[in-house]
Structures are given as structure tokens and as C-alpha cells.
Amino acid sequence: MTNRARISLTESYRTPVRYDRRMSIPNTSHSAPSALGVPPRDAAPPHGIERLGAARLATERTLPIDPVLGALLGAEGLVRGQAVACRGPAARSLAIAASASAVALGSWIAVLGVDDLGVEAVADAGLPLERLVRVRPGADGVRAWADLCLAALDGFELLLTCPPGRVPAPLATAIRRRLRSRAGCLLVIGDPRGLEIDVELSSAGPSWHGIGPGTGRLVDRHVEVRASGRRVHRGGVASVSLPGCDGRLRAAEVAVSDPIRTAV
Amino acid sequence: MTVGVRTITIRWSDWPVSALGHPPERPTAVIVANRLIAVSPGAAEFGISVGERRRSALRACPDLLIVDRDPALELAAFEPVLEVLSEYVPGVELVEPGHIRLPARGPSRLFGGERALLDRLAVDLAELRPAGWSPPGVGVANGRALSALATLVSIAAGRPEVVPSEGSPELVSGLPVAWLAEIGEVPVDFVSLLDRLGIRRLGELASLAPSDVVSRFGPVGLHAHRLANGIDERPVNTVVHESTSAVELAVDDPIHDASAVVFAVRERAERLISEVAASGRVCVAVRVAIETEHSERSEHCWYREEGLSAAAVIDRVRWQVDAWTRRPGAVTSGVVLVRLAAEQVRPDEGSQEGLWGGRSERDEAALRAVTRLTSLVEGGAVEVPVWSGGRSPVDRHRWVPADTVDLLDAARVSRDAAPWPGALPAPAPTVVHRDPLEVRLLDISGEPVLVTGRGEMSSPPHELVDRTGSRRIVAWAGPWPLHERWWSPAVRRSARLQVVLDDDSAHLVAVQRRQWSIEATYG
Predict the structure, then answer these.
(1) Of the candidates A110, A116, A128, which has its C-beta nearest B434's C-beta?
(2) Which CATH class for the A64-264 domain?
(3) Complex prediction ipTM
């Protein structure tokens, strides 16, 4: 616990904006969990020690995530040891938005096999570039890619990747096992191609705003994001601006639908 | 009263440039993190100075040759200097290539006084560099920090600066406080804090009561205050405790690859530094000795005032190995032994590395993974972004190999404060094509769309044709003309257009010499 508190303290020095935001959490009796790095929650009843214990466990099991996506996933954040697939026309923006909060709070992210990633967009999404490392896996195929995956999962809490081909079952199992044992989080852009996926974030119905026939410019894109998967408690749909006018994810509205009706 | 051993500091402030081998009159500059760290006399004639940004330097001199720093190259060029100096005294401390320190007492006795020694040195060192480069700054004083300050004075004055043993408070008191950060004695933050408090000269700092300085600034303030009073308490040759060990890497199979040597040494360096840190001290000087199967040997003592982290030690091993292998005929076989010894340690005041630059466990784990990944992929495919500035998404960041930069230095990605006129506003594209995909842009009658020299389109674009087929353009904005580097042969003249296609995908297309291509995609 002391260890964790120390880490988040040094992070506070690095990212003053984040610090300010934490300092302005209205519920002052609840300042201890904020020092532990728990993202502020709306309806968090202060139940003293038990509540604190639960909150701390949550940070150990999860990585922080943007509140909009967090509400959609229904979990406390990105659950460690899970693989998340980002699909649809806004897959890349979605993967960047999903990892930005965790990297801003001190996690490192490896980008494997996504050579044409737009760095500017990553920075605009609020993901600090100083903790981003890109790995270009040569043209040696899936086996070499999987080796790099395993090595990256050893040290990086987040791994953003895109398999170069069909992943054979033994390799997928090895990656899965490493992911669980190192408690990292795997973000796959597009088709998982044989990788075992726990959560799928899919985007649909994109529409660009601010641009017309010969007028304006691209300002923001509205897109519907849907979460599904066997560990997602509530399947919901969020209408978001991704990217918003400043490059970050912005909520348009979150409509959490009834789980039974979604299943039908 | 001053204490401390008589010390000579010699510093060639333009060494990184002169090591490149260009003639001095050619405008050349060496750059780190977008700031110039050394300029040639030719560049100085244009009014370009150290500390400037790339852009402002290019504005002053468009033909300026800007080169990224390469310490291994600098060290390779510096080896002859070290050989000459080894005839004067065995223990030369290397701060970085072009910046060294040696004890003065022995050699000055041998050559008949400090003046005679400096004259001799000046003659010997002048032969080592072609004419046209400025002579090195030479400072002699009691203690390391004072001699470093004297060297800065000497660079400014153009002649060796000898501070007498009994001290000369008037020399120190007139110097700017910022020089303390320049010589690495105090953090830059501390200097800017003093500046905001109105303390600009060392004399003003010295006139404060020591108790006030300590209570306000802690150990850093005390150290700065002592220096401002002309007292340098840290002697050159601190005795190393017996317990502080050296580490050795002896291999049976000679290693022939320079990067493999560095990789193999990493774990030992981490062990050495953590051993020193466990006793509450930091290592300020490390001796790196490398031996080959044929008993060739390269040995240097590296010094860093702020203390050496494991990454800093590994950097120095890499420079040394690279520089050594670059010298023709110096290495004829593989490396069999690397020895790292903590030559000097001092108590860790916890002021510089501990609190501000401290690493978390996550940083350590990531750094280890980077090392492992580097060994798995061939040549420089593990990369990190570095800000370089520019107008198009491809230019704005560069990817550099992860083992050539300090990964924990966040400054490498910080953007220019000044705007780039002509750059596109947010949102930025998430896919940036390294090799732009060539496409055709047609208007409603099927004719190719052109952009005139005045930045006007011949007709509104209607469809975009690429290898896979044709898609209709539902919205578009632009064209925004771009005319870059018009003064040089690398002139680039293009126009950019944002388009939204009927499948709701958005792209940034550019035209150059009548050829349209997709530069980036908003995915």
C-alpha cells in the first residue's frame, strides 16, 4: 500500500493537471482513495475502511480507463489479464482512448506491429508519449510477432497490437497465459485472428462534423460504441465524439440498455 | 577559506561539432532534443548560439547543417587527446568527450609550476585540432566545481583561468547563478527558483545567511551556498569503501557485436548501481575497462556530478565500445571481459535523482522489456517518438531507436511552444502512411482535379479512385497550400485536402506535382 501511494505521488508531480483535478474532488472525507490512484467515481458512498479496502483492490485488479468507456464496460476499468478487441471504423481511436488514462497515470504502453500509428493523434488523446514504445516486428510472420508479444507483456502493462496473420492456437494460449500471469492488458485493433478475446469494443455509424462540400474542416466524429463480451456486466451503447474537437474522447450520451433486451 | 584538491578542468565547448570533421567555417550545429548544444565558428558568424531551437537557427542560416548528437563519434575523435593527456597524469576523468578533469598537483610539480604546465598543455592540445576552432577553456582551482566555473570564465575570456589557492571571492561573486546548473552542480529548477526570487549572481547568494538558505532550500541550497562562497567540499579522489565492489563480466565466447556487449553488461551495471544505492550513496565516477581476446584494452573513468544511474553507465559503455570499434585497427577480436568499478561515491542527498527523477517499478519493468525487445528484433526496430516539429503529420514526430535516448526523459516529446503556421488543427489522423498511397481525384465529369499555383482547385472533387476502386467524395475541405524549404533544393510544394468518402471514412489527401496521394487516414 505504501508503495502504491508513493508511485501515485510521483505521478502527481509529473502531471500537474491530473493532480489539480484530483485535488478538486468535492468529497474531502474521501481523499485517501484519490491518493491511491482510484479514478473519481460519481456515487461512491463513504463507508470508511471497508470501502477503502474495496477501492484499493479495484486498482490492483484494473487499470484506469476513461470514465465514459468505464461506464460502458460496467467494470472498474480495464481488467488486468484481459484482452480487449477494438473493432469497426473507429477501432484505432477507440484503442488509443481506452489506454490513455492508464498511461497518463504511469503505465507503459508498447505498440507492436502498428507501424503507421499517428503519434499526433495519440498525444492529442491525452496519452503521454514518453511512456510509449513502438516495436516493428520485421516480416518474419506470426511466430516472431508472438515472441515479441510475450517479451513486451513481461514489462509493459499495456500492449497495443494487430496480429500479422492467423494466430495458431498454441501461440494464442501462450500469449493468454502470459497476459494473465503478468496482469497486463492486451488491446487488439481489428480482427483478433485467433487471439482469445474477453471484451469487444465495437464502433459503428461514424459521422464527421464540421466539414461540408468545400467548407469548414474535420472537427469531430460521432460514433456509437458498443461493449460486449462474457465479462461485461451490462451490454450498453454509448454515443461519443471520437475524436472530439480537441482529439480526446467526449461523451455525447450513455444509454445503458436492459441486458435482457440486448441479448434478444 | 577554501578546501579541496587543485584541479584542472579542460573543456572544448564546440567538441561535438568539431568531431564531425567538417571545416570550421562551414555552418554546422549539433542538436539534442531540438536544441543546439554546439555550433561551429561558421555558424556563430550568423549569430547562431548554443541553446537555440532548430527553427530559429534555420531562420538565421537556412544552409545550416544540423546533426544529431553522436557521443561515440565524439569519443572516437577524442581518443588522441586522451592519449596526449595520459602522458601528463594517469587519472583523467572524462565528463563527456571534450570535457575532462585532472588533478593539478602532481603534473604541476613535475613541470615546474601551474603556469608552466598550462603553457605546455596549450601547445600540445593546439596540435590536435585543425586551425580555426577555438582553443579549449582551461580552469585551475581548488576543487571540482570551482575549476569547472573557472573553465566557463576561461571560455568566455579566451585564456586559461587560474584561481589562486587562497581563493578569489570576487571571481565567483560576479558569476551568474545559472552557471551552477550549467556545470551540473544544482538542478535547473533550483536556479530558476533563485532567479524568480531575484538572486541572479553568486555573490548575492553568498551574502545570505547559511541558516536561511538551508532552512529554505535544504541540502541543494547549502551546496550552492558553499560554492558561491568559494568553498568546494568534494575532493576529486574520494576514497571508495571496501564494500563498494566492482562487477565483472567475463565470457568464454568472445562477443563480436557491439550492441551485444552493451546488452550483456546491462544487468551488471544495474547490480553495481543498486549495490551502491543500497548503502545510501550515489556513484559519481565509474571506471569502464573492456578487454578483447587479443588483450587489447580500452579503459576510461567516467564522471558525472549528478550521479550515474544504471542507464547512464550503460550509455557510457556503449559510447566507449562504439568509439573503440570505430578506430581503425584498434580492435581485432571479440570482447571477453568488461569490468565496471565504482571509483567514487558520495552520500545520496536525495535531492536530484531520488525525488524528481525517481523511477517507479513500472518504469524499471518497461526498461527491462525494452532491452529484451531490442535483442529480439534486428537493428533499431524498437523505437520511441521524439518531437521534431513540422506541418504535415509525417513530419511532426520522428521515431528514434529506443537505445539511443534516455527513455525516462520526458523532454524529448514536449512540443514547441511556438505554433507551426500551416499545420492542421486537431483532430490529428490516427493512421499516417509512411509511403503515401497514390490515388486519383476526379471531378463530376471524370476529369482529374488540379490545384493551381495560387492554391485554387480546377473543379470540385467528386470521386476518389485507388487500386481497389472508386469511392464518392461526400464532403471536402481545402485545399491548403504548403510551400516548404523554398530556399533549398529540397523544396516541397503541395496542397492538402480533407475528404470524407461515402463509406464515412475521412482522409487527408495531398497533391504534389499533379499526383494525388492519401497521406493519412482518420481511423
Answers:
(1) A116
(2) alpha beta
(3) 0.73
